[in-house]
Prior knowledge:
Elements: H1 11-15, H2 64-67, E1 73-76, E2 80-84, E3 93-98, H3 109-127, E4 132-138, E5 149-155, H4 166-172, H5 178-193, E6 198-199
The structure holds zinc ion.
Amino acid sequence: MTDLPSSLPSEYHRRLPYGERLSAAPLIGQPFFPFEGDVQVVELAEPVIPEPPRNGEEGGKPCPKCADPDQSVIWRDDQWALKVFEPSGLPLVALLEPHQHYRLDNLPPELTATLGPIIQRVAKAIQSLDSVGRTHFNRWGDGSEHFHVWFLARPLGMMQLRGAQIAAWDDLLPKIPVEEFTANARQVAAALAKDGGEALGA
Ligand SMILES: [Zn+2]
């Protein structure tokens, strides 16, 4: 272990083995873990405090959503927009954002009130794809300050793709063809627009 600053913020931080490689054993053989064999864990990095600014935070890069609000948007209403990017390994990966620049902790009541219903609508719209068994959604927020929720379509019957490792599988699986990606995005946008808002060209 390296010489640690005494300014580490908590007992939790002071206990960790910075610079060491932890064992991958707890994950190997787990039903949702996509790797086997000799998996090497990266060295545990020391904490960076204060944390570097995210996109959209003071001192960070500009917020990509505010810099180009309509970029990649396939559906929108007066509060929310849904984006897709490019073909990946899953039938669809989509991003839901409010038009205005808020974080989760300062999202105003009129947006928190519609957050549940819009998550339900997006999940249902993605689920309408015949390749999809379940729609996962996640809010991480480590890249951009602008509040956003990721939606990841889990292919029907693909039980290895259950749980959080679906994000890794999205990178591992062969990319779907562009035509299929565009058709999936259009179908999701149209399904959403049936209950309000407008579908935009995908
Ligand atoms: Zn923003």
